[in-house]
Amino acid sequence: MLQGFHAEVKRLLLLLAMASIIGLLIDQLAITLLLAVAWYTGWNLWQMLRLSIWLQGKRKSQPPESTGLWGEVFDAIYHLQRRQKREKNNLQAVINRVQETTSALKDGVILLDWRGQLDWWNPAAQRLLGFYNSDQGQSVVNFIRDPRFVDHFEQGDYSEPLDIPSPRFPDKRLQFQITRFGKNERLIVVRDITQIFHLEQMRKDFVANVSHELRTPLTVISGYLETMADNNTTPAWSRPFEQMQQQSKRMSLLINDLIMLSKLETTDTGFNQKRLELGPLLQTIKAEAMVLASDKQQTITLDMTPELSVVGTEKELHSAFSNLVINAVKYTPEQGAIAMRLWRSGPHIYFSVTDNGAGFESKHIPHLTERFYRVDASRNSKTGGTGLGLAIVKHVLLRHDAELQIHSEVGKGSVFTCILPANDGRTGLRPRDK
Fold first, then answer.
1. What is the pLDDT at residue 339?
2. Is the same domain home to 15 and 84?
3. Positive or negative, the Cα torsion across 244, 245, 246, 249?
4. Which terminal residue of the chain has fewer beta carbons within 10 Å of its beta carbon, N or C?
5. What was the pLDDT predicted at 58?
6. Residues 324 and 386 in one domain
7. Contact 74/82 with Cβ under 8 angstroms?
8. Residue 137 DSSP SS3
9. In this predicted model, what pLDDT tens digit does every residue of 340-379 receive, in sequence order?
C-alpha cells in the first residue's frame, strides 16, 4: 500500500509540474494549476464511483483496473473478498458437519436463543417432542409444560439433569440436560431413559420384595440359633454358634437397611412430616451411641443451640443422624472422642458429627453415599457395617431438602455435616460452609 501511495504522490507532483510549465509558457499559471487540480479531483471521484458501483454489485465481477494507490485499493479489496469467501465456505462446511453429526445422534439436541425460544433442533428432538418447522421461534415451555420442567428452566440452576415423563408419549421417560453458552443461549440434550427407568423400578421392587421375604426365615433361623446356643453343652460348638449368631445379626441389619432404603425410594416426599424438636431427638441418639461406645471407652459430647426445630419425619431423621453417630463410633479407635454439634446460621440448621478416627482421602468423598461403597475392602467386615448407612443418610436428607457435606483428613478424623432448611419463614443468605 505504501508503494501505491508513493506512486500517487509522484503522479500528483508530475501533474503540478507540467501544469506549472504550461502556465508559465502561456502566462496563465493560476488557471493551469486550477485545471490540473480539478482534473485530479475528478479522476479520484471517478475511481470512487467505480469502487461504489463494484461494491453495490455484490463484488461478483472482477475489481476495476487502475494504477497507483487506487489499483492497490482495488486489489486489496479483491483479495479480502476471496479470503472471506474461503472462510465462509470453511465455516459452512463446519456447520454442515455439525448438523450431520447431531442429526445422527439418538439423543435430541435443541438450541434456544437468549429468550428461550426454539432456534434449531435435530431429528431425534423432533421425534421425541413432536416439533414442526413452523414451531421455530416459539418458547420451549409451550411444548414441555410439565411444572417441574418449567420451574427447572426458569430457576436457571442446570447442574443436575431433570427426569420427567415425555410430553408426547406418556409411557416414555425423558431426561433433560440444559447447558448455557454464548449470550445466554441454551443447549438442551434430551435422552430417552425409559428402559433405564424401568430397570431402576424393577431393581427397587426386587430389593423391596426380597428384603421382606428374607426377614421371616432369617428371624426363624436366628431364633433357633439362639436356642441351640443357650442349650449347647459342647465347648467345641460354642465358637461356631457365636459366629453364626454374629453373621445372622449382620444379615438382619442389612435387611433392615435395605427395607429402609426401599421405603425412602418408594414413598412420597413429605409423608407424615411435622414440626420436630431436634434437641430431644439428639439426646436420644447420644444415649444410644454411648451404649455402643462404652466398650471402646470413647467420649461422646453434644453441644447444641436449644429449641431448634425443623419440618420432617422423626423416624427418618433419627435414622440419618443415628447412622452418622454410629459410624463415628465404629471407625473411631478406643478412647477416641466424638463431638455432636447442632447450631443455626441464617436460614439453615446445621448438625455435625466430628471424630478423631483414621480419616480417609478426599478422592473417596464423592462415592461414600453410594450403596456398599467401601473405603477399605475389609472395613465393613471388621466393624459389622452394612455399607448402606450413608446411602440412607443421603436419601433422608434429599427428602428433607437438605444436603450432606463431608470433610476428612487421613490420620486426623472426619466431619459429617447435615445442612437443613429451618422452614420458619426467616430469610437470609446461606452462610459459608464451616
1. 93
2. yes
3. positive
4. N
5. 59
6. yes
7. no
8. coil
9. 999 998 889 999 999 988 888 888 888 888 887 777 654 5
Q: Report the C-alpha gap between 301 and 281 in whole angstroms.
A: 14
Q: Are residues 211 and 299 in the same domain?
A: no
Q: What is the rounded distance in angstroms from the CA atom of residue 420 to the CA atom of residue 344? A: 9
pLDDT for res 46:
84
pLDDT digits (tens, 9 = 90+) for 246-265: 888 878 877 877 777 777 77
Return phi, psi of residue 210, to 5°.
Answer: -65, -40
Helix/strand/coil percentages in the chain, nearest 5 = 55, 20, 25
Please give the model's pTM, rounded to 2 decimal places: 0.56
Residue 87 is predicted with a pLDDT of 85
CB burial of 338-371 (b: ≥16 within 10 Å; e: otherwise) equals bbbbbebbebbbbbbbbbbbbbbeeeeeeebbee
The label of the residue with cell 425460544 reads 117
* Number of neighbouring beta carbons within 10 Å of residue 290: 15
Grid coordinates representing 377 are 475392602
Q: Lay out the sheet containing 118-121: strands in order across.
A: 118-121, 108-112, 185-192, 173-181, 162-165
d(CA 97, CA 103): 10
Please give the residue range of the domain that contains residue 212. Answer: 198-266
In a domain, 208, yes or no: yes
- pLDDT, tens digit (0-9, with 9 covering 90-100), for 54-63: 777 755 667 7
pLDDT at 26 over 50: yes
Q: What is the DSSP letter of 168?
A: S
Grouping H, G, I as helix, E, B as strand and the rest as coil, residue 6 is: helix
Q: How many domains does the chain have?
A: 4
382, 383, 385, 389 alpha-carbon torsion, rounded to 10°: -130
Do 41 and 155 lie in one domain? The reply is: no
Does one domain contain both 205 and 186? no
